[in-house]
Amino acid sequence: LIDYIQNLINTEKKCLDDGITIIFYTFVNMKKNLAHHIFLLVICLFSSIPSVGKPVANADSLLKWGEKDYYNELYSDAVDKYLKCIEKARNDGDDYHEAYALCEIGMVYTRLNDYQRSVFYLQKGFELARKSGCREVEGKAAAHLAAVYAFNDKLAEAKKYYAIEQKLPHVSEGLRQYFLLYNKALITQLSGQSDKALQLHRQTLRCVDRFHLNKHYASSVYGLIVYLYLDKGNIAMAKDYCEKYRTFIGKDGRVFME
Fold first, then answer.
1. For residue 183, which phi and psi values (nearest 5 degrees)?
2. H/E element, 83
3. Mean pLDDT over residues 98-123, rounded?
4. N or C terminus of the chain: which is more exposed, having fewer CB within 10 Å?
């Protein structure tokens, strides 16, 4: 019986089903002790074979796992999965997922306020997407580059990528509409048009609700509104939006309160 199971393992992947079948019929025939030993044998034999029961993650799976970690603020884990996605995509000649993962790493560094690294990865993602014709990822990268340059007070570069963003699709229509409003509001705010920027920020928040986007997209807008009211000297409204911001960010919102 041991030789039979070993032979199945060595020859066919369907052997796991065969091994389970043997265990089942042995148990049904009231030979419980033997069934238990066979079960342990099958588990031991299969655990020594990496390809059995451990499917190789494809680039798309790695990307999704990375996104899950990103939204859970597990940034180091997210970057690790994105890098594995890039490696897998390169080996498979998959420009789409490679460019996408490069952009995602750029987003992680944006969240960590490391704008130099953020631009580096976003730019690489943008260039690869443009070269390979992945227009949705190109649009995604342009949108994030516009925002990052705006955060760094590089208005000319922000406007440049915002103009590119306007001509391109995005990975989803909801995110396209969001970033078109978000970046327009950000550029308007940096240009000193605070009242118009505030109107655009509120439109952006409505866009988050309309398309049921992740809460992080709203929290970023609330943070910008807090700064806007602080610049206007309206501390009461700044505190009000800070409380809204804190409902999304948690303890980090205390920084604004202080």
1. -70, -35
2. helix 75-92
3. 96
4. C
